[in-house]
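User: Second chain of the day. Same drill as before.
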Amino acid sequence: MKLTLKMYGTPVLRQKAMEITKFDSKLKELSEEMFRVMYEAKGIGLAAEQIGRKERIFVIDIPPLSDTNQNGERENPNVQMPEIFINPKIISHSESTQKGIEGCLSFPGITAEVERFYEVSAEYMDLNGSKKIINAKGLLARAIQHELDHLNGVLFIDKISPIKKILLDGKLKKLLKETKKNL
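Assistant: Same format as last time:
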């Protein structure tokens, strides 16, 4: 299995992912391929749609040095990375939000400020079909929300201000043109 990143304009990025019901060796192989693609692109998260698949799965690997607050303390010291999220859903979130610059592997060279919940609790399954719950803060919470959006056909540019979207219009059109040329 040799999958590649799908760029903005690829129809699968706007499709809603399908629940996973088979927890077998093919799912494990898919998750391994997702990590390979993510690491090659130097990302911290990747959803199945970003490699042209429609399964409800994403992977995340946040380096410990990136998982720190303003005091330099780990935000999520009890969370082991990397992690595979199958059939995830957010079950609760904080009232407080965080604004931060986001990028996306499907939008190379494009970043924008996005507001997200500072803390989330998510329920998901692992490769064995066992249910898990994660409580995440900061960058990990942001990554979970970003990747979960992908599984619902929502892109980070859908969450930016209209003014910022206008400012990015030229870059987005250029990326769209390149993508359509390669479809």
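The mean pLDDT is 95.

User: Great, on to the next one.
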